[in-house]
């Protein structure tokens, strides 16, 4: 028998992870764009970063807004394995995105020549990782909202 956690608490933890780390990534790219670090490649940097994190952040915001409209019951629970799988996959994915953005911005910055090769190459591992995160998040939300089955004795 698996343990269950309060759904509202788990949603807040996932949202905090995505908005803190995802927000830091967007803020980093924004500041470096303003400072002119990306020069002629700023458009390419934004074309890389936005689809990398915004779909999931939009999902999280939508869920939070819907919960404000009709708050979840305190009895709503989610399997702890599904939550932690979503959380850990999200954390690993966001750290990979952050590492790619930092490498792109700072390791290549001294040459004053921002190459787009690292961004293109990162899609080889970030794309599949994003798919895993989306699948885990989908299971988290579907499993958490599934109607409770009556227990059989």
Written description of the protein model:
There is one protein chain. By secondary structure, the protein is mainly α. The protein has one domain. The protein is built from four helices and two strands; from the N terminus they run βααβαα. The protein has helices at 7-34, 42-69, 80-107, 117-145, and strands at residues 4-6, 77-79. It has a two-stranded antiparallel ribbon with strand order 1-2. Helix 1 (7-34) runs antiparallel to helix 2, helix 2 runs parallel beside helix 4 and helix 3 runs antiparallel to helix 4. The longest helix is centred in the C-terminal third of the chain and has 29 residues, at 117-145. The radius of gyration is 18 Å and the shape is elongated. The mean pLDDT is 82.
Which regions are unreliable across 5 or more consecutive residues at pLDDT < 50?
A: none
Q: Give the radius of gyration.
A: 18 Å
The count of DSSP E runs of length 2 or more, i.e. the number of strands, is 2
Give the strand line-up of the largest sheet: 1-2
Identify the overall geometry.
elongated
Helices and strands: which structural class?
mainly alpha
Give the averaged pLDDT, no decimals. Answer: 82
Q: Please give the largest β-sheet.
A: 2 strands, antiparallel
Percent of sequence in beta strands: under 5%
The rounded distance between the terminal residues' Cα atoms is 14 Å
What order do the helices and strands follow?
Answer: EHHEHH
Helix content: over 70%
Q: How many discrete structural domains?
A: 1
The oligomerization state is: single chain
Number of helices: 4
């Amino acid at each position: 028998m698996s343990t269950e956690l309060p759904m509202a608490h788990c949603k807040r933890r996932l949202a905090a992870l995505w908005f803190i780390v995802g927000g830091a990534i967007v803020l980093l790219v924004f500041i470096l764009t303003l400072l002119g670090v990306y020069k002629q490649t700023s458009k390419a940097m934004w074309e890389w970063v936005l689809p990398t994190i915004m779909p999931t952040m939009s999902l999280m915001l939508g869920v939070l807004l819907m919960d404000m409209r009709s708050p979840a019951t305190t009895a709503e629970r989610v399997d702890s394995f599904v939550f932690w799988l979503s959380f850990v996959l999200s954390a690993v994915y966001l750290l990979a995105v952050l590492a790619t953005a930092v490498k792109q911005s700072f390791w290549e910055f001294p040459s004053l020549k921002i190459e787009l090769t690292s961004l293109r190459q990162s899609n080889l591992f970030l794309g599949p990782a994003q798919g895993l995160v989306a699948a885990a998040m989908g299971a988290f939300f579907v499993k958490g909202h599934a109607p409770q089955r009556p227990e059989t004795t």
